Each structure stands twice: as structure tokens, then as C-alpha cells.
Amino acid sequence: MKEKIIAHRKLIDIFVIILVGTFLCIPLLGNVDVYKDDGIQHIARAFGTSLEIKESFFPNVISNFANGFGYSWNLFYGSLTSYSLVIISLLTGNFINAYKIFVYICLFLSGITMYKFMHSLTKNNNASILASILYMTFPYHLTDLYIRNALGEYVSFVFIPLVFLGIYNLFYIDDKLKSPALTIGACGLILTHNISTVLVAFFAMLFVAINITKLNDKKIKKAFILNVVFIILLTALYWVPLLETLLFADYQVYEDGMMATKESFLESRLDFTQLFVTRNDGSFVFELGPHFMIMFAISLIGFRKTKHRLKEIHIFCVVSAILSIWMSTKLFPWGLFPEEISIIQFSWRLLMMSGFFLSTVCALNVFALIKNFNVKDVLVISVISILYVCAFVGYVVYDDGIKDINTYTLGVLTGKEYEVIAGTAKGEYLPTKAYDNRFYLASRDNDVFTLEGKAVIEDIKKDGTNLTAKIETFDAEYTLFELPYLYYPGYTVRFDGTILDCVETENGFIGFFIPQKDKGTLEVEYTGTKAMGISLLISCITLIVFGIYTIKKEKKPITLEK
Fold first, then answer.
1. N or C: which end of the chain has fewer CB within 10 A?
2. 24 closest CA partner among 135, 137, 134, 112
3. Is the C-alpha dihedral spanning 171, 176, 179, 180 positive or negative?
4. Cα–Cα distance, 392 to 396 (Å, whole number)
């Protein structure tokens, strides 16, 4: 019996991770308010994307948002979470249950990726399952799930261990692309959440910098470059269209202070006491937990007892844990940094990184210090960790009247100077000219307007991102028209079959010229740009190449750490 357990230990551990994830997700069985804070925007975006997929090969613009003039999330924000919700909703029939199933899957996936990372370090199942459970029960992890509904950041917990697993394999394991973890982890982050990508990249670069001399090894350098190339090409379908928005026109998201100002960022810094005690005022849970602090406090002793081959990763994680915690508080001198640091929005986001590094260090410390470390030790610490987060169940918000997203009126802008609307958030992805003319946007109808020159426009038929009309112009020089679509790259405008160049009007809408007196049929559709098509093709081809390359590597024998 014992031999069978040992032989199937990893499968048993995966079952335990799923079991713990299931227990932690019990509140989802009730009417949890999944729309609270960021939740409404993530679900509205997924719902809008699902409607647009039926109409366009490139569902970058959600045509019925922003008063029917089209609003883009997917050009600016990684769409992995959105498409995941869309796919699951096909099985559930609604987006509330799709959201719950998705976050449940991501919780135990984060445990599995953490298990994989720790097992690569220690080759010990007990240390690996402990690190996994600590990571899943880290209070800020569950704050993202239940209190903030910050789906993008929450899903990033799945990919963080993969990034560091990949880097560790790169520098400490022979046969360098044996594990595709670095590429998968980095691509997952990029396609999920921009800010999490920035934070992970910062600490990943620190780890690379510490091991920079190892890049003198040609095999390591080759593997490093290969990973970077794979990451760039696999994510081209996202960053190429994003780059187009930066070059194509001015969008509000790129304006200083739109997402956050330096002042608001500095105000988000935590009081040191918030790391130990949560205020009873509906605040987010930022405390670390006494069990984490106790296990982390013995790091010096743990470092001395840690096996030599793990000392470098141990000290890196200790320093990174301290640094990330420090950076989340008012004790860190963020005021000395330039305005650009406000891209992080909230200093307490650094707790996401703290959760990963603390879980790693705590598991390594316990593994090193407890003689004959066994399942009983894992069980005791895990129960303490699980019971600790259970104490915060009162922070979960329920709503018995919650309805599926398709019953909501989404993306209707009223023209107020500042408003947060379900489906368009703060309007940060509007063209800047449209953002500055919100009253015009709110009061405009769905007709085709003549801005300069004279024309007769008849038989206007608008269906999502498709529009047709009959136009006759009377000006011999040119006539400038404005379409009832906000200015995003990817629209094709034809007049009697001839493609016309699009311009941005003073109101942030799509405009076009008819250069002479003429009469004909106008046709408008969202086709995406050539760059979007090429980048999607590049990513698809790279995915096939990456899959074949990885499969071939998996057939080669593993060489353990140096």
C-alpha cells in the first residue's frame, strides 16, 4: 500500500490541491457579488466580446458599448480572461456561473504551478504541497478573488510560478528548454494583465541580473534568446494591435494621470499596521498572517540549514519578499520616483509578489528545519493556514438579487465629467478627443454626419460594426463625413467599392472624405488591420513551432541541477 502511495504521490498531491481549492471556493456556491469592484467590468467585457465574436473575426471593438458607437477593451487589455469566460459561458449558459467556474479553476491551477515550481527546487513532495497550499491561502490572493474581483491580477497568480520556474530551469537545469514554463508563464501574464506583467518582469530581471554571468554559457544564452523570441512572437497578436493604437491616434489611457496620478498612488501605500491587522470598515485584506510571519522569521536559520544548491534561490526569495512588502507600504520612498511609477496604480499590488516569495521561503524554511519533514507536518501547517483565511469569510459580499449580465444596460455614457460605467469603466480606452467631448458622444445619434461640404445621405442601415448608406455629394472639392463609430484602427470604409482613407474627426469619431462631386453606396465594416492579421498569423505559426519544439525536448532525458 505504501509503495502504491509513493508511486502515485504526485497524483495524490494534485487531488489534495483541487480539494483545498474546492474548500476555499465554497462561498462561490452562494450568491457572491461577482460584480463588486472590478468584477462588473470583466464580466461586461466578456459578454460584449461574446456578442462581437458572432459578427467579426477581430472582436476588438464591442459595437453596442459607448452608446452604440463601439468601445474597445481588447485592443488595450490582454483578452485571455475574456475569452476564457466566453468559452465557459457556452457550457454554463450565463456569465455568473462562468465567472465562478473560471476563478475556481484558476485557484487550483495556481496551486499546481506553485507545486511544480517548488518540486523543481526541492524534489520533495511534502515541501511542494506545503508551498502550494500556502500560496493558495495567502490572504491577498483571496482578496483578489472575493473582495476586489480583480480577475486579471487574480489569474496572474497562475503564471508567476511558471515564470520563475522557467528562469530557474534556465540557469540551474541542463537541457535548457526542457520545461516550456518561462515562455508559457510570460505569455500568460502578457495576455492577462499588463500591470502584473510589469511587476513580475521587475523581479524576474533581478533574478536574471543575479545570474548574469551564467549567460556566458552559450547553451544558456541560446536558450534565453530562444525563450525571448518565442514570447515576443507568441504574443504578437496582442502587442502589435496595441502598438497600433499608440501610433494610430491619441487614446485617453495613454494620457498622464488617467489610470492614476502620483498623488493617488502615494495615497495607496499601506500603513505598516495593515500588514498585521485588517480594519473593520470593509477594507481589503492586506495582512500577511502570523503563520507566514513566524515561518519567514526563521529564514536566517533556514538559510543555514538549506541545501547548498538552494541557497541562491532561498536568499533571492527572502530579499524579494522583504522588498515587495516594503514597497507596498508608506515606509518605501516612492515619492522620490518619477510620475511614471503611477502606472502600478496601487502600491499594495506588490503583495501579489509577496505571496509568491513568502510561500516559497516559508516552505523552504520548514523543509530545511524540521527533521524528517513529513505529511503530518504539512497537514498541521496547512490546516492553520486554511483556518486563518476562513476568519475573513465575513468580508465576502453576497447579493440575492444578482442577475446575469445580459439583463444590464451596458456602456451608456451620459456625458458627465467623471463617471464609471459598467462596460466602459472610466472611459479610459476612448479616443482622447471623444473623452474630451463626452457630452457630444452622449447626445449624438447614429446617423452619418456631413462636417464639411454638402451631401444627401439616405437609407442608413447600421448593424453593429456594419453600416450601409446612399450618399450624393454636391461639392466639387471634397466632402468630409463623420461615421457613428469611435475612432479605432480596423474599420474599412468603401464608397462604390473603392476603399477610402479614414481620419479622426475633432470629436474622436471615424471620418472620411469623398474628394469630388459623386453619388454612390457607402459600406462600412470592421475588418481589422493588415497588421492585426499578420500578427495573428505569426502567433499561430509560432504556437505550432513551439509545440513541436517542446514535444521533441520532452523526449530527451532530464539532467539534474549542477
1. N
2. 137
3. positive
4. 8
Question: In the 8-state DSSP scheme, what is residue 281?
Answer: T
All cell numbers assigned to 351: 503583495
3-state secondary structure (DSSP) of residue 129: helix
**Alpha carbon distance 72, 18 (integer Å):** 36
Residues 6+ apart with CB under 8 A from 488: 60, 61, 70, 72, 75, 245, 431
Those residues with Cβ within 8 angstroms of residue 359's Cβ, 6 or more apart along the chain or in another chain: 114, 131, 134, 135, 138
Name, in order, each residue with C-beta under 8 angstroms of 267's C-beta and a sequence gap of 6 or more.
none
Question: Do 69 and 415 touch, CB atoms closer than 8 A?
Answer: no
Closest by CA to 385, choosing from 394, 374, 377, is 377
Q: Tell me how far apart the alpha carbons of residues 452 and 474 are, in angstroms, rounded to a whole number.
A: 11
Beta-strand pair 519-526/491-495: antiparallel
Task: Indicate if the alpha-carbon torsion angle 165, 170, 171, 172 is positive or negative.
Answer: positive
State how far the alpha carbon of 127 is from the alpha carbons of 78, 271, 375, in Å.
33, 32, 9
Domain 445-528 maps to which CATH number in 3.30.9, 3.30.70, 2.60.40, 2.60.120? 2.60.40
Flag whether pLDDT at 3 surpasses 90: no
Copy the grid coordinates of residue 357. 516569495
Residue spans of the domains in the chain: they are 2-402+537-554, 445-528
**Per DSSP, what are the bridge partners of residue 513?**
480
Mean pLDDT of the chain: 92
Chain mean position to CA 83: 12
Higher per-residue confidence, 57 vs 455: 455
- pLDDT the model gives residue 560: 43
Q: How far apart are CA 131 and CA 382, in angstroms?
A: 9
CA distance 92 to 98: 6
Query: Percentages helix, strand, coil for the chain, rounded to the nearest 5?
Result: 60, 10, 30
List, in sequence order, every beta strand (DSSP E) within 16-85: 61-62, 71-72
* Three-state secondary structure call for residue 450: strand
Q: Could you tell me how far CA 111 lies from the centroid of its own chain?
A: 18
Round to whole Å and give the CA distance between 128 and 360.
9
Quote the radius of gyration of the chain (alpha carbons, Å).
26
Reported pTM: 0.93
